[in-house]
Amino acid sequence: MTRPVVHFEINGKDAKRLREFYSALFGWKISTDNPMGYGLVEHGIGGPPEGIGGGIAQSDAARVMIYVQVVDLHETLRKAEEMGGKAVMQPVDVPGGPTIAQMEDPEGNRVGLVKQ
Fold first, then answer.
1. Which domain holds residue 15?
2. Would the pTM count as exceeding 0.90?
3. How many domains does the chain have?
4. Pairing mode, if any, of strands 53-58 and 86-93?
5. CB-based contacts of 109: which residues, under 8 Å, 6+ apart?
6. N or C end of the chain: which has fewer CB within 10 A?
7. Please, what is the Cα angle at 49 between 2 and 42, to 5 degrees?
């Protein structure tokens, strides 16, 4: 079964600057009104009816990551490792949010996983 991309994340050393940049460039509505101060990006208009939202976060390095919704985080990480990937973050509950994990594909691209 095809699993959907449900979230994206843009990270950088100056999250405030990134929020201002993407808000001005694409008209994104970004809110940091949450316990973690995470820049939640509202899903867009004119795309798929459900759309996908995203986030902008503080990080030591710049990176863009997608999050794919899966039924079983542990099983997906196990399968990724069998196929040459690597689990880089075991499942963790985000305060007030979903359970997530992260993996790297065989080329080193990091992909987030969100429990359905």
1. 5-115
2. no
3. 1
4. unpaired
5. none
6. N
7. 100
